[in-house]
């Protein structure tokens, strides 16, 4: 095959500040797990960057290093934690409130967790009506809020001696709203900030402030933040990577495992009914139809992206796809998803599949936060800007870098992630064909 | 990238005889569906060779033909059906007994189905104690049985004006038995046939006869037939493709969808409990512990093949994997599989997944029979011999062509299948990386 | 024990007309099954009146007749079918549209089914917005509508030579509405009819017309019809039995099996999440939040009725009970219910139960229609009037005859039904104690 | 109704020793929960004797006391714990090994738990091959073993100042064996003890010793102990109550909830497939086919007892009933049961029910131990001897007191239990009929 050129990538020296807007269940679980991994208490299970091997060359060559030994990632020991939150006083309190982790897993790291105190948040209840913010910046104008966030980042970087920062949105889902004219260009957006435009949500202000501070921004919620034309423009102008959107956990993770399999085997799908029960803050927020709307759009698209009804109208052109989320306090943070899938095969005969997933959302999301932080930082050092489509592996509603829609199939996404790393490091992509 | 060379493939002219040892539920469903597809009654759902598209070049090129229009496969209209069975008088009776297809789906094709009369079988109740053969060759010596099968094939080819033949084993699972010295070489096997060696099972005689008749042989059961050194040797000497083993349907299909997903996301697996209930002839046969043993070995291996416990001991080194099959008459041919999967993630927290698959085994197996027949014939015309590892996509316990174990991950298998076809036709493999 | 007095019951001579307002899935399935039972094609499975035995005296006496041989019920051969429907032209078309029964089960009885033509309905889309009536009485005033129904019944009785009539409501669920002043007394209701009062729904007009025609009325939907003070008054004044409400099928049937068991064993309940998917006319109607409201009220009450949170606040005082109904066309008439139940036991330890019920609503409802018709007719001949609480066995939200709430526990309801019949016939109630 | 006579019952004064042969998961959970209840830490959830109310007279009378305030039961504060075990050094160690209760629930009661030291067991690995006893009486002859147990009880009673003793078997399931001639009479059994007869198992020696010591004996395992003619004879001769057999928990509990419901509604049952996965000592023991045999016999009978196929051959005469138990370590003590039930209704149409019960066996069994202990002691004081059929509510395979088989229907069993108590106390039985 053709020779490959190695990408120039700046080394991962110095400290990396990982900032999370939102320091609730997901962020505190992420922080606790990284601390535990640093102290050798538990392996960072679920983190591809830390745990996965990557095959290089042919199988016979038997080269199969850990990803973290193959590409120059920041070391877990070099991570400094920070963020913003309208409610939690520190990461330990956030973890206790969330109830994801048991007391015995928090006791030994409580001092360090208590020391991680979020900065006051940019928050507006109009976008998350079920929450009440108490640790909120008392700044009325949105331009001024952006300036304050930029100052927060500069101060955090200096006080903690960080070489670089990266942001991963771990906050709640905002109410759904179509993009408007204010989101068209950087110029219109900046005018909107000054005008305190109603269409600008808090997550957009965080994203703008990050990109203006040369800080990569990954979007873990279904908010449209990183999809907005102004943000894509700014990320390219400023040379900062962005990625979105919505951590791929729970039921949608399961969908992106199963749907590619049905398609691989050319089995038709007639219906897919998904219902969730969950009892945490996320469940409360999504019980509000406006916030659920954002989530629903993000969740419904995933099947079409994988199954390509336009190519396979007989198999996938007539799917009743229903998604429901129910606030059900007895479940606590342990979300449960029940799927009923109606498929059909040879001669049109129907079959049914029921999947009951007794899942833990924050446990599944935490390693995604880590991987997105490390890979976004890597991309930044590798000179990338704009949408990092190769990270769609981690995201429910992946953004495309170009005009062709992003892949939704988890296995193609995985291949894309690994082959991108191989290419950057000057290795041949793996094709699994006879010759490779 | 480097230029690719197109493989020389003989054209698919003339008729193709598809012979199935075993004309029960699977074979009769396969036949009925192909007839229905020929007559435009139903699309051949589940058949990758007939329904799937294959992307060529980059996404932007927008080249996406059907596989059957990309590679020179035999046309459905050119297939002639035949086989051997110890019980069924014809394909229509087999279909009625099996109860897979409803009366309304059989009525319009009953005449053609009745005309498909299996030849008398080589059968030995020692290997399938729960069945009683009535349409069995009255030939005591195994060498003579092989000769009779060779004669059957020659006669079938001539009487039906076939250009080529292919065999897909659709018979029952034979009792488990380790290979013995008689299976070491072609010479020792032929001596064993003459000596009526107890270690030689009927399926082995079919396979030997096929390879001596230049007929490719695919193995749809967990029998060790095509794994035997003598058969691999013979397939290479005679230049005939073989493939095995065990149609990938039902619960194992589901496993090969889910397990790669857990591994992709580096989620640990602590246990996997699988139970099946089924009420058909297959269920009766597998209720016998000796026959179940063959199946169990085939089913248990699949997880290790995918999860690589030797590479990931912390995640996959301690899995309690239990597989049970239960004869339960109320279910009829509609097998049901229930899986409980215990996984763990970040900080070792456990999660559970329950999958209830109300499945139809023969409906899932029938398109595999078609695809294996067409692709084995293609491989033959393309000059292949020995194990066709690129067809492991269809098989529960895939055989490797070389020393490295075959891939068990359905999605890598799919990539392998498609990239093999691309290479044969002189197209670049698809890598899904930025560059491809 | 004390001697019992036998009740005077008029004999079941002559024909019994069973009229159903609503001739859709449930009514057509009921009719088809009774015809099949009459012709010996199938036993009336699910019908307690036809299939169940009743133990008399002590076990040692070994007296265990069929209920239908113990009490003087109308014979299946004496039933004449009729009804009203805004859509179906006849029972055969209704059955075909419903898709509950397969063609092969309808073919042999199609002539008889086609001959059962519903009368034009009293219908108002305001109460069932998802349906469009086409076979509707063109009578604007509600008093006149009631008169027309009374005339319908008189004519039906005469034309068919019926000795007696009984009505079982098999129509759709009407939009939820609290009772208003017009429902207080018979006088106010009659004035409302004349005034075309908006608060009077079609089902109320049917019920009024029935009671004025000396025809017992059973209410198979969650409509508040038979609960209204005016109807209870009229049923007593006129000496006609009424019963309500809502056929106990599907998920609620399951609830009334399971909840009494938890209570019997003093296991606590922390939450009960119930979701339904169904694709028939009922599903479409209930997809409208106004109609679902009626259903939800009927479904939610059942747990409290059984578990008595006022008596057991520690066990049942804090239950999150959620009920959802989803229109999901792939399921057709085969409703599926999935329940998650969170219980707790010794030392407060939690346990979970998941129940997936692949159910057929009309198949479960049809024998209830039969039993209610026959038992209401029996009660009428036995001189009963007012609410027939002993029939609460069949009903989701049973009405009480007096001030004490009706029992919701299926097993107490069963005891009540059987002991009521025993008492009417002069037999001792069964107590299952040492002495009895 | 007729006047009732009050039974003479001796008062529950003084201490009650509750002895459990077997001090493993069930017994230690029972002990921990009673201690916690005494100290007000947790209510004794699941205990009918402690938590349930009982209605007296008509509903209108509104008399509804707690059972424990209605009948003279021993007070929880008066219970003294003891037992025998071949492995556990004390109740605390047993609880830790079992892993049923979390550390936080054991910490505050650990001192008391550690003080409960089982006596050395009569144990024979021939009957429980998967266990190795270490704290075992070194007495070879069975007669001498019985004498030693009798001495143990006398000493325990005296040392602890007990007024009365009661035994509840909480040990493992013994290997299945049909009764033999040695079990025919007390005389033959005593001769067998002297002869060290192979057919006499340890549980039989415990039972014999109890009955000779005037100590009631309840059998929580499927061992045939209390069914043996010699034991029934001895219990009557000596005036001591016995009860058996097999605590009704988990899947069988679920069966006795559901099956009565199907029968109440006259729904047919075509098949019932039950599988269990569990990872505790019980699971290990039952993985041995000989021990499973005892369990299987006990579990399979329950459906016939409820459904009466002899009375309802069309509905229940052809049931495929399969029960499987699987040792699956990831589940630990948290047994999980999955049931598939195939039912049929009107016109024979099939429906399916799947029940997944994430259960905790010891949590369900512990309150049964308490109730059996208290009610057996009550029965003893009430002058009862022989089989206590009214306690069949708690038992999987209930023994009948006379020739008529015992009721298996949980709801009839509940009625029987409560009406028995009502009768003993001179109250009318409740019939739920119009009159009562």
UniProtKB/TrEMBL annotation, chains A, B, C, D:
<dbReference type="InterPro" id="IPR013021">
    <property type="entry name" value="Myo-inos-1-P_Synthase_GAPDH"/>
</dbReference>
<dbReference type="InterPro" id="IPR002587">
    <property type="entry name" value="Myo-inos-1-P_Synthase"/>
</dbReference>
<dbReference type="Pfam" id="PF01658">
    <property type="entry name" value="Inos-1-P_synth"/>
</dbReference>
<feature type="domain" description="Myo-inositol-1-phosphate synthase GAPDH-like">
    <location>
        <begin position="250"/>
        <end position="362"/>
    </location>
</feature>
<dbReference type="InterPro" id="IPR036291">
    <property type="entry name" value="NAD(P)-bd_dom_sf"/>
</dbReference>
<dbReference type="GO" id="GO:0008654">
    <property type="term" value="P:phospholipid biosynthetic process"/>
</dbReference>
<dbReference type="Pfam" id="PF07994">
    <property type="entry name" value="NAD_binding_5"/>
</dbReference>
<keyword id="KW-0413">Isomerase</keyword>
<dbReference type="GO" id="GO:0006021">
    <property type="term" value="P:inositol biosynthetic process"/>
</dbReference>
<protein>
    <submittedName>
        <fullName>Inositol-3-phosphate synthase</fullName>
        <ecNumber>5.5.1.4</ecNumber>
    </submittedName>
</protein>
<dbReference type="GO" id="GO:0004512">
    <property type="term" value="F:inositol-3-phosphate synthase activity"/>
</dbReference>
<comment type="similarity">
    <text>Belongs to the myo-inositol 1-phosphate synthase family.</text>
</comment>
